[in-house]
Amino acid sequence: MIAYLAMATGFLLILIGFYGALTNRNLLRMIVAFTIADSGVNLVIVAVGYMRGRTAPILDATVPAADAAARIIDPVPQALVLTAIVIGVGVTALMLAYAYRLYEKKRSLDIAKFMDLKW
Amino acid sequence: MVNALFIIAAALAAAFLLGLLKEQWRGAAYAVTLVALGFMTWISADWAWAFAMNGAAPVDIFTAGTEPPFAINLRMGRPEAVLTLIVNLTGLLSALAMKDALLALGRRAMAVLLVATMAFCGIILTRDIFNLFVFFELAAISTAGLILLSDDDRALSAGFKYLIVSQVISVFLLIGIIFAYHATGTLNIDGMADAAQALLPGGMQAFALAFFLMFMALVAELKPFPANGWALDIYESAHPAYSAIFSAAAGTASLYAVDKLLLIGGAAWLPAATGIGIVTFVGANLLALPQTKDRRLLGYSSVAQIGLILAVLGQRDVLGDLTSFIALGLLVAHSVAKAGLYWLSGLIAGRELTAWAALRGHPLMVFAFATFLCLLVGLPPFPGFYAKWELARVLAAEGRLALLAAILFGALVEAGYLFRWFGHAIKRDKPAEEISCAPFSVAAVCIAVVAGWALGLLWGEMAGFLFGRSNLLLALPLLFALAFLLLDFLPAWLKNTLAIAGLAGFFALTWTEYDPLRLIFAIIFTLGGAIVLLASFSAHGRRIGFYPAAMLMYAGMVMLIRATDTFDFFAAWELLTVGSYFLILRGKHSEPHALSYLVFSLGGAFLILMGFALAAGSGVSPRLTFDIASLSQLAQPVAPWVFLLLAIGFMTKTAAIGLHIWLPGAHAEAETDVSPMVSGILLKAGLYGLFVLLMSMGKQQLYGVELTTLMLWIGALTALLGNLMAIFQEDAKRLLAYSSIGQMGYALFGLALMNHLGWLMALMFVINHYIYKSMLFLAVGGVAKRTGTRAMYQMGGLITLMPLSFIAVLIGIIAMSGVPPLSGFGGRWIFYNAILDTDQRLPMIILFFSGPIAFLYLFRLIHTIFLGQLKDEHRKLKEAPFWVVVPQMIYVVLLLAFAVVPGIALRRVDEYMNQFFPEGGLDWSGLLITSNYGYWNPVAIMIIVGCIFMTLFGWLLFVNRRAQKVKQFNIVFAAERPYRPETTHFAWNFFAPYRKALGFLVQPFATRFWDAVTGSLHAAADFTRRFYTGNGQTYAIQLVGFVVVVFLLARGI
Amino acid sequence: MIKRVSVLLLLLAVGAIFATLLAGYEADPELNLTARYYADRTAADIGAANIVTAIVVTYRGLDTLGEVTVLFLSAAILGLVLAQGRKREQARRERVPAGELLTTGTRILAPLIMLLGVHVFVNGHLTPGGGFQGGAIVASGVLLLLLADPVKHFAHGLIAAVESLAGIFYVAIGLLGLLLAGGFLDNRFLPTGELGALFSAGAIPLIYSLIGLKVGAEFSAILADLSDTEEL
Amino acid sequence: MGMLMTAMTVLLCIAMIVAAFVAIAGKSLPIAILSAGLVSLVASVLFLVLASPDVAMTEAAIGSGLTTFLFFFVLGRVRKGEHDGGEHD
Amino acid sequence: MDFDWMKVPYALLTLFIVFNFGLLQTALIQKIAARVGRRHGIPVWQNYIDLIKNYGQRSSITHGVMFYLGPVFRLSGGVGLLLFVPSLYGSEMFSNFSFAGDLILALYFVFFGTLGMALGAGESGHPHAAIGVSRGLAQVTAAELPFALAVFSVALQYQTLSVTEIVAAQQGGFLNWTVFTNPLAVTAAMLSFLGSMMRPPFDVVLAPQEIPIGPPTEYHSSYLALMQTNRAIFPVAKIVIYMNLFFGGATIWPEFFLKVFCIYLWSAFVGVVFPRFRVEQSIRWFLIWAVPIGVLSILIL
């Protein structure tokens, strides 16, 4: 149930993020919207790996290595999300820097102002 | 061999190491970068060598000491080795080409370059889907960074647009990956593929959707049309050396990623790949048409090429093992060419296509340019050609003709705009700025050129290995032609001597190998070529570029008659087309004409290719390469289609009506000694093709229509309209060109008669037309050279100044008009005898009409140039240059000889044709030639006419022995005195009454039709490209829209 | 308006795809093959208690290397982007120094924060958290320093050196794995030790520490570069 | 326990969606940035619920913390462009 | 049918007969035409007088080699044409040089003289010559077409291109003549004949009534004489072909004279009745009226 909820929310976040990114013409707002979509993706990925009634994939006293297979949830999506988050922040930082420089060039954050290249 | 992981490790280590260097030590940083890239390249090369030469087995590389699917693994196999080699080499050479930019931006930029190259290699090497995602992100981010190397400040916005799009892509990819993982329990691509076998056919929807998302994400990296505006902006604004990477390396890597992904998707997704690929190929090529900016044009072309390869990957189900041969062939050709072109564009200051005229005066760079274009278009002997060939064969065999047609159409459009560009470079005004000669960049370009030719050699070897063919590039005639590239520094006279010796020598070496029919063509192509080349002795200086082009054409023609199978035939056909294109392009104003020549010729060539493919597909042969003669085994319903395609293809070369509009300009604007080559000799290649076609296929019926009858009509109409158009020309060379159209119509007609004498007549025209058209073109060319104009009405009265040219023209027109006793009469005589044997009477009537019309333009030719009033400004003209006159005199002798003893050429052919048409041959008893209907004694005619003429001439001399030459104006002129030569020389609009009566027949319908076709293509393209608004957000919307549309289509299907 | 509607329609279609995915999703009752392998073998093979860490650092170490490289790239490109139009010298003068409280607070807090970061990544193989989280925490310490003393010339060189060295060592350790153990980034060329101990799980603590340092340095570099920009 | 968890999840989800709407539709850019940070922060709580402490930590530290800082850094430099491209279409 | 030397004197004899016949015939026709126009006309020996006068004239200038050779070409064309076709059927003596070629040779040799004349006239530098040539060539292309069609029709009919064989096939009563067995072809040919005889309504090429114009504009004295000679021989030579193809040929000279005269009279008859066409009008006329008949004659066969 939680997994479904989280997943649905994740998808919704992606859509909201996309909508924001595709309709807002302000560069910074587009970037903000993309971070929301990224969060949504992360949520979906983690939700996919969730298994009801199991614990985090860390072995300790309560989860001995021997019966880990029956006790823990799928660790792989979590590993993937870690990577995805870091990549996401890298891209966001980069986009922000671009936005800054674009603003420096045209004194505007309106994406419709950057149409020198076309056709 | 070094573990392929070292490619990644080395790049990263070097990139991190750069951080330790001081910002100021840029030289050192650059050196580190080059060493690292070199090392990476060496690893790939080492592997590629091992796979190619030592037959090494593919190696799986495990990381973390754990076997897949539990840890990420990489694979180094044959394709990986080649592809990483492409990537690394492009990276290395681009690093050379953008040395200045790298040094200006410092170590960070170099690190990014290293990481980018590594990322592309990673995409190729990895077998893990999520790892693929990571490498893609690395590639995307480093691309966004490297765009900054450009000195074009619009690059910044292009980078941002790319980042937006890559965000969208990565969301789709991640969602796809996680659901695919959930469905299959693995992230390993091979593991997923195995699992998919169990999942997909049952249509487990979630997995199919997950795959769809992954697939679309990776396809989006291929910049599919129309969701690719962002990519074009990058191509246009990035540093050209980076664009080279973006086109060659990124394209390569993404394609291989899609290829890997298709392993998972299986056969069900192949049509989608094909569909997207072919839409991209055709769409992008069309949009490139109205493009005037070089780098953007190359961008469109890159997109198109990648699309084509994607389409090929999508045909894996039918291509089977050939997929990699074809896709790789297209890919390496694309990569080398595109990288080379981008590096080249870095040397050029202007961004307009016309700015490439700066290359002129740098023969090496022009050669590089030409090499890249030929590589791209897939002309022999480059890999794309082999790929195109096999692809056509399989597609036709599988009945995927629509796809094949779309591919060929796209390729034709591509060739059109690429060679238009080449035309600009050769013909347009040279811009003020010289090209920069940065040694590293030039080196990169040169290496690409060498790589291109090496690939040609390699693919030739591979094709030889796979299909048992001899290597095209090593064919003696081609090698000989290419040798002139190396000898181009020699003076023209020396090269000319070599060329003539080569042609004659080749004939001497091989003449025993031909049957009589081929022997005649061989003589025309080699010895005939040698005679025309005599005229080239009149050229001074080095004449850069002439000999490679001319000899390429001759090589193609020689290879054409030596070809016994379809592959050699087609390759030769393309070679002679390219060679002649370069040759024609040399004319002063021939840019548009050379282009239309090329487009028509390639269009024709593609039809031929389709014809061969269709034939091969219908079971004549398991391979496309088959003995041409076995075309005869074709049966209904395919045979007539094959016939139609091949016939139209060949008729494009002979300029049959409707397909003729390229000819007048191309022949007229060519150089003096080139016109006879392309008219007198080159046209015969088309006739040869038709001969071969009819010899092997004979009559064919399509929907009850006898196709040879159709040809008969086309021939007759061509003869009529060609001749009609000729009489209205004011330009002497154009007149001759239109006349050639008419003459080819006669020959076509003769062939289509499908009887013994018809063919003999065609052959007679082949010989005659070669002789007199070469002669006339040389004569007229010589005159034009001296008078500085080709407009006939500006000449006049040149007979006394240029008597030898006059004699040549006189003999030429007597022969051509068919007046006895010269050789043209023989053609007419055979013609009459031939038509008596056939039932097709209506087209003959048209031909009857065109006969006397020829007389009109011929008279006009000689009258307006040589007779009438001499112009004041021409009074001091000299005879045409010695070396232009020499071949003309040879032709005069040949014509007379052929007129008296046509048997020397025709007798053996006549016998040879008995195997095709045992009936209706000629009887050659003594000097008398007898047919079923009539007889003809050329020697007697010559003697009788000669005697009568000499007798009367003697008589006139006797009664009028004191005749004195009077001044030109000393004429009886109805109560007026002549005023000036210009007003007294009746020359302009000579046949005005004819225009009044029949001018409606020469409305330029064909020209208008083709203009409308190209015009609407351009208009459509120009309209469609407005779609690329330049707004990054719109591009992202388009991408999402693209995904949705494909989704809907895929669901619909 | 047209744009909004068409985007809405397109996203509706995308939403339909997502909805289908959601509807077709069923949680696995048991761990799938890959996950089971990790659950069963991590402790024995890798010796890390935190299975996610084991996956991130070892099994999928190549991803992580790529991930670190992404940050490296971001930092480098950010530097490039901002360096192109930078007029740093004028920019610096105009900034107002931070208040006394912040400055003093920072002096006490920053080392503590950084220590916490180090703790997080050194224990990455045992507890939740690791190089990335630790690195981020270290970077936040740097951020604090930046806020407190924006005029101070920031030690770009030091950051770059830390970043590079960490990166080089990371690659080197990976290669050691290739040479001494089973493959690239194999952690087992060092003893795996006892499950749960600090010095266990082979090279994982080492690698994760390097990652932490590197990530911290990269984030710091990004922040420092951004802080060097001027207000437009 | 299950119920409680579910209810909490629902709450978290609603909070995220509301925050997301604020982020893309709100007039003020700083608030949009903060809302996006909030989405991340709530997501990291949800990750804890989903038994993913590693992810939760990362998301909290990087996704919500660092990213928000980056945004404000840049926003501070381009203040005047905050409203560019609004209210046009 | 091989060459032997005896053919030469025989051919010269034919030439002599035809030459005299031609001179008289043209004069006669001109006289008839004059009488139709209520004029007195020339005496029948007038052509002899003109010829002798012109050969005797001394003013001899030339505009160049081709100019000089023009009349030679012209007359060679006429003589050659005559000699390549057998004059009398069944007569070894008057079969001339027809062994050298068949009907096609004759058809194409017609152009030999035309071409030479045109070239010679062209070199005169006189614009009217060029205009005349342009008109003449333009007209002849259309005028020759029905004839070519008719010839082809006849060749198809008799399955041969040999003139002798065609005549042979028409022997045995006048109903065997082509004019009765293939009337359409003959109609087409006879319409075409009008165009090639340089008589009204198709004589704008020469336009004798106006100022000196047409190809021979600059020719005089002995040149003109040669051309006059040709004007006597060439029409007869051409008519001989018609006669052989369509009207059963001739076996004796009187029959020859009669048939040739009658065929020639046909063009004179039309000429005095109709006004002159402009060139484009005559082209259209031939294409609209004569050509379809010729086409029909081939198709019906």
Give the N-to-C terminal Cα separation of chain D. 48 Å
Count the E strands of chain B: 8
H/I helix tally of chain D: 3
* Multimeric state: heteropentamer
Can you tell me about this structure?
The complex is a heteropentamer of chains A (119), B (1053), C (232), D (89) and E (301). With 119 residues, chain A is mostly helical. Chain A has 4 helices and no strands. The model of chain D has no long low-confidence stretch (mean pLDDT 86). In chain D, helix 2 runs antiparallel to helix 3. Chain E has one domain (7-300). In chain E, helix 1 (7-36) crosses helix 9 (221-246), helix 2 (46-56) packs across helix 9 (221-246) and helix 6 crosses helix 9 (221-246). Chain E has helices at residues 7-36, 46-56, 65-84, 103-123, 127-158, 163-169, 178-181, 183-196, 221-246, 253-273, 279-300, and one strand at residues 61-62. Classes of the chains: A mainly alpha (119), B mainly alpha (1053), C mainly alpha (232), D mainly alpha (89), E mainly alpha (301). Chains A and B meet through helix 1, helix 2 and helix 4 of A and helix 6, helix 7, helix 10 and helix 41 of B.
What does this entry show, briefly?
The complex is a heteropentamer of chains A (119), B (1053), C (232), D (89) and E (301). Chain A is mainly α.
Would you spell out the secondary-structure blueprint of this structure?
The complex is a heteropentamer of chains A (about 120), B (about 1050), C (about 230), D (about 90) and E (about 300).
Chain A: H1 2-23, H2 27-49, H3 68-71, H4 76-106
Helix pairs in contact in A: 1-2, 2-4
Chain C: H1 2-24, H2 33-46, H3 51-59, H4 61-84, H5 88-93, H6 100-122, H7 131-148, H8 156-180, H9 204-227
Helix pairs in contact in C: 2-3, 3-4, 4-9, 6-7, 6-9, 7-9, 8-9
Chain D: H1 2-25, H2 29-49, H3 53-77
Features:
heteropentamer, A: 119 residues, mainly alpha, Helix Hairpins, C: 232 residues, 72% helix, globular
